[in-house]
Design brief:
234 residues, alpha/beta, Rossmann fold, six-stranded parallel β-sheet, 10 helices, 48% helix, elongated
Length: 234
């Protein structure tokens, strides 16, 4: 029986891609958004991977995104001061665009109404990730927040999932974890002993031989987690 449900934050509860796309296009209004948005996403993912691997500090990974982008936009080689000033402006635009996905509030209310314990496991800076939860108005429902920056373990490593379960006082086999990344979130959670659930908002067909349950909207989660409902992959 599932007694606790933990969630990824960016891309699962918060529309991170939408907020980032809005912020980067407002930052460079003359650039072609069809090129700019995916390029910014690519640079961001590469920098965050290096941060999580311990290769870059949190500040350095931010600089590692904008410095090459500025060069590619023909804006020259930016020093750290210019990069940091730009990042501050970008973050203001990004934060202003933070929004939950439409179904988040009602789904969390439904799960909390069943008495399930709720929380978040997120790879990222603790201060920023908690600020997101506050801004989304979800802090009362999601009081248990575990971050990679505080635990020293990042998804998909088992340590961060087990630390979250220990903090909630539940064994891993009584916890479900929901995230938008198949390997990092759903399969990582399953390998740690939780019920991993993949939230796939795309319109692409599901991969063959999927080893974890897949949902295309959080609206499907309460039914999936009912005691008499199978969580076998579909």
């Amino acid at each position: 029986m599932i007694t606790a449900v933990l969630f990824d934050l960016d891309g699962t509860l918060l529309d991170h891609e939408g907020a980032a796309a809005e912020a980067i296009t407002r930052s460079f209004p003359d650039a072609d958004p069809a090129w700019l948005v995916p390029r910014w996403t690519e640079l961001t993912e590469a920098a965050v991977d290096r941060y999580l691997a311990g290769e870059l500090s949190f500040t350095a990974q931010r600089r590692a995104r904008i410095v090459p982008l500025a060069r590619e936009l023909g804006l020259g080689d930016w020093d750290e001061a210019r990069a940091d000033a730009w990042v501050a402006g970008f973050l203001a635009l990004y934060q202003a665009a933070w929004r939950p996905f439409p179904e988040v509030g009602r789904v969390l209310d439904a799960l909390a109404g069943r008495g399930l314990r709720l929380g978040v496991i997120t790879n990222g800076d603790a201060e920023q990730q908690r600020a997101k939860i506050e801004r989304l108005g979800l802090a009362d429902l999601l009081r248990h927040v575990v971050t990679s920056s505080e635990t020293g373990s990042a998804k998909p490593a088992a340590g961060i999932f087990r630390a979250a379960c220990a903090g909630l006082g539940v064994p891993p086999n009584e916890a479900a974890y929901v995230g938008d990344r198949l390997i990092t979130d759903a399969q990582g959670a399953a390998a740690a002993g939780l019920t991993g659930v993949w939230l796939d908002r795309s319109t692409e067909p599901a991969p063959d031989r999927l080893e974890v349950p897949r949902i295309t909207s959080l609206d499907a989660l309460p039914r999936l987690l009912e005691p008499d409902h199978s969580t076998e992959p579909r």
